[in-house]
């Protein structure tokens, strides 16, 4: 069983740590089924602890992957069969199974896995975006030793999918529909726009750059910003956004950006390193930047402050995002609140 400690790497190093574990998929490739373990990972920053399988009390739910709840030092924690949530119905929970207890978006959950393997320290520039939007529960993938892949899971999306089927209200007050399509090759979202032809006051609107690799989260934040009468340019990764911003010509749309809203966990370049690069640029160093992330807690807020962010807010937390925008935008702005 792995032991969770506080990360020792510097803010802006573009490094993070993964807990590795496997989920077993049975494939009927011959006359006899063959079980194939698939390697997955989750960011250590989202994990409070890894525990042995506790006593789980069943509960009534429409989601078969929800095994029930367990007591963790007086707090009820939902227990989720992770392999089943991924569609691998044949992995059995045994007395040797372990539970990865996570906390993000100010919520806790326990993901039951066969066992954890190790903690791996990696650089975000080694992480590739998913090869297809069909992998909606995967935020990134990385080639490791023996030519194997490790897939980084989107635990937020997994919980959102479960709650949508079990009658829950989701993890935020945003109205989230089907995710928008994205172009993972260029880094700029297909729906990126700096103009709204229906508005006569377009030139007076602040232009916001939104950077998030999650189509669902990006769509939600952009819908909020448009509702506040703000114009938007969207990117799916910070590396592409940084390259285009730093090379932007006077008079271009990117040269008119007045504020950046960025995710933290992203392939290629994380949000902290993105902020550090901007603060180190003579051209961009005064740009207001809001980081939004499901990584809640004072430690992450302090890391954002060290990187140079103007604000750090919970991902999809409407109230926090609106307050941060009002504090960062020019006083002359008269958009809707």
Question: How would you describe the overall organization of this protein?
Answer:
The protein is an alpha/beta fold. The chain folds into 2 domains: 15-166, Beta Barrel (OB fold (Dihydrolipoamide Acetyltransferase, E2P)), CATH 2.40.50; 202-328, Response regulator (Rossmann fold, 3-Layer(aba) Sandwich), CATH 3.40.50.2300. The chain is built from 7 helices and 15 strands. Strands 8-1-2-10-9 form a 5-stranded mixed beta sheet, with no helix packed on it. A hairpin with a 5-residue loop joins strand 9 and strand 10.
**Share in helix:** 10-25%
* Unreliable residue runs: 169-186, 190-201
Compressed to H and E, one letter per element, the order equals EEEEEHEEEEEHEHEHEHEHEH
The portion of residues forming beta strands comes to 25-35%
The assigned structural class equals alpha/beta
Q: Whole-Å distance between the termini?
A: 48 Å
Give the class-level CATH name of the largest domain: Mainly Beta
C-alpha Rg (nearest Å): 21 Å
Strand order of the largest sheet: 8-1-2-10-9
Determine the CATH topology of the largest domain. Answer: OB fold (Dihydrolipoamide Acetyltransferase, E2P)
**Sheet having the most strands:** 5 strands, mixed
Q: How many individual domains?
A: 2
How many β strands by DSSP? Answer: 15
Mean pLDDT score:
83
């Amino acid at each position: 069983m792995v032991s969770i400690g506080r990360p020792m790497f510097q803010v802006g190093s573009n490094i993070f740590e993964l807990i590795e574990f496997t989920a077993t998929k049975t494939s009927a490739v011959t006359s006899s089924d063959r079980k194939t373990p698939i390697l997955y990972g989750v960011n250590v920053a989202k994990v409070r602890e890894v525990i042995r399988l506790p006593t789980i009390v069943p509960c009534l739910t429409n989601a078969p992957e929800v095994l029930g709840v367990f007591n963790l030092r007086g707090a009820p924690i939902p227990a989720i069969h992770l392999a089943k949530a991924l569609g691998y119905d044949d992995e059995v929970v045994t007395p040797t199974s372990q539970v990865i207890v996570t906390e993000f978006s100010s919520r806790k959950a326990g993901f039951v896995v066969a066992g954890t393997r190790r903690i791996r320290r990696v650089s975000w520039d080694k992480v590739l975006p998913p090869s297809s939007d069909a992998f909606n529960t995967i935020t990134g993938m990385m080639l490791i030793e023996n030519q194997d892949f490790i897939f980084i899971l989107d635990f937020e999306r997994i919980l959102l999918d479960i709650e949508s089927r079990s009658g829950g209200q989701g993890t935020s007050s945003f109205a989230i529909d089907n995710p928008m399509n994205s172009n993972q090759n260029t880094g700029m979202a297909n729906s990126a726009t700096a103009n709204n032809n229906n508005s006569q006051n377009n030139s007076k609107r602040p232009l916001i750059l939104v950077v998030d690799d999650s189509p669902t989260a990006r769509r939600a934040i952009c819908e909020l910003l448009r509702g506040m009468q703000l114009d938007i340019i969207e990117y799916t990764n910070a590396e592409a956004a940084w390259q285009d911003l730093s090379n932007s010509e006077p008079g271009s749309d990117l040269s008119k950006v007045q504020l950046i809203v960025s995710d933290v966990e992203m392939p290629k370049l994380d949000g902290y390193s993105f902020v550090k690069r901007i603060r180190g640029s003579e051209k961009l160093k005064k740009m207001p930047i809001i980081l939004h992330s499901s990584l809640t807690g004072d430690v992450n807020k302090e890391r954002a402050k060290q990187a140079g962010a103007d604000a750090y807010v919970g991902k999809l937390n409407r109230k926090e995002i609106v307050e941060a925008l009002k504090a960062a935008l020019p006083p002359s702005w008269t958009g809707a609140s």
